[in-house]
Model the fold of this input.
Amino acid sequence: MFGYLLRRVISGILVLLAVSFVLFTVFAKGPAQPALAYCSKGVCTAEQLDIIERNLGLDQPLLQQYGTYIKGVVAGREINSGTLSLDCNVPCLGYSFKKFEMVTPFLLDRFPATLSIALGASVVFLTVGVAVGVISARNRGKPLDRGLQGFTMLATAIPYYLVALLAFLFLVSKWGLFPTTEYVAPFAESFSGWFKGMLLAWLVLGLFYTTAYVRYSRGSMVEALNEDYVRTARAKGLTDRRVALKHALRAALVPVVTIFGLDFATILAGTIFTERIFNIQGIGLEALQSIGQQDLPVISATVLIAATFVVVSNIVVDVAYAALDPRVRL
Amino acid sequence: MSISSAGLENPADALEPDPSADTALEKAVAGRSPVQQAMEQLRRDRVAVTCAIIIVLFVVLALLAPVITWLWGVSWKTPSGDVVLSSTDFDGLPIVGPPKGDFTWEHPLGLSPALARDNLALWLYGARTSIGVALVATIASTIIGITVGLIGGFARGTLETVVNWTINFFLSLPFILVALILAPIVIGYYGSEPGKLTVAQFASLLFVLSVFGWMPLARLIRGEVLSLREREFVQAARVIGVPTRTILRRELLPNLVAPIIVFFSLSMPTFVSAEAGLAYLGIGVTGYPSWGQTINDAMAANAFNTYPLYLWAPILGVLALVVALNLLGDAVRDAFDPKTRR
Done:
């Protein structure tokens, strides 16, 4: 178990190093002149360009620049700009010369909004999805089950961003059924404001993922209901309800939890549409706006953070799987 | 397969004497390949047929986009400044046609606000972008998926590890992030040359979609190959000295037709949806018509309240095409998957 975990962590770190190196190379070598992005209105004299390049350390060899960057991530570093010297604390993801801010604290500020969307939506699709899936499985083949199946198939056929866009346009703009979507800090500002502002985003993203979770939990519930121990429990004389909820559901939840673990990082990395459509200032929207400004450190930091989430949640899922299912040996 | 099914039908025919029994038996014995059986099931599936008709309609419109716009005398390009000024009001909305005036045959879907581009032409060329990008990306990712899957299933040792690691690596990166990385690079390189920028954006879009679309197929094929390679006909081919490459192509590939067709038909809607979605975010194609980009422009122009037709045309385009492709894909999967075959 420990050996397995160690191997997974090392391979995860290798993946992240590979991602960060590719990112670093394409951003350093990609645009014709990265320094040009920092000139006001894209116009600089050769002398100014030279100074910017020296400030950014772009005159050094690529590997050395990358080494500085990685050192900053694990140990922090100093960023020099002319006579100014700024301390960049661990994990240092660079300095945005567009926003005149350190990237790490800047993105940390935006992170609660993104996390709120992902967590709230997860609560919605896990509760609704599993509940509907269980109902569907217990009524397998009956009109109710077939109706639910048909509905989920149709619902997954529609692109998410269209659902979100239409929900926003009609439910907020036109009919005013939901309060304007926005992010309000739940603890520092107002909890009810936070809840109101996020409500529609949670419901739309959550209900969209619900369709997939109905399918997963219906599938594994149908399988679990066919197991021998369920028959035994019935033979003992337990009620159908008790058999389904106590005996079958527990086993049926294991694969659902696994898929959730894998999905959560993707949801977190992919809230970009949600943030854009509902105008919630999270990391994704920030990255999107940074593209227009050619703010490369912010974009690369966003991607690196998202990749970290995916890698970490992959490991957590595998370990959790082994803990939940006694048949899995690591 | 066909022989065993014919055998099953025999007793039923014997129990119930029927004048057509002989011909039915003959038909059964004639035998049909799994693909033929699946196609027959699809032909009987009313949802699948309806969706196929809708898709064909979209493809025809996309293919004929230059012809239709030429016959109609409209263009998606921004007319010269004088024309723009004379055809739009002070609030940017067009003088002729919707939303202020009535329907005109000259511009059936109206003119776009501010730039006075013809919306019909924008829509038709948007369909071209959607279907074209999705088709190329699907073909490319299918080829990559087949190749990597075959290698991963047949290789042993280091190569197998490398292939598995590669599949997992690409699976762990959300494609939208890669699109996010490429967008500023492409703009950084070609931002000053609009013509080249469009080409580069198409190229990077196709790259992102195909490079992040092949993994499910590769996994599926790898799994199939792992079980197929232990079968007698593969062993026999190996014993008589057929080279590995020929085994892969002649013995294994024909057995993988079903997963490939299913993957193909389920990839198309994903890519159409992804193309429009990225264009909506502004990290897809920007210099050429795309439904997602029109949705973005319409949202920015507050078209929902002032000019609904401008917003609804591309939304309905994406919606109808993606839903039709998805439902057809589901039907194809049902028809080709032996577990769900009715």
Observations:
- Residues 1-17 of chain B have pLDDT under 50 and may be disordered.
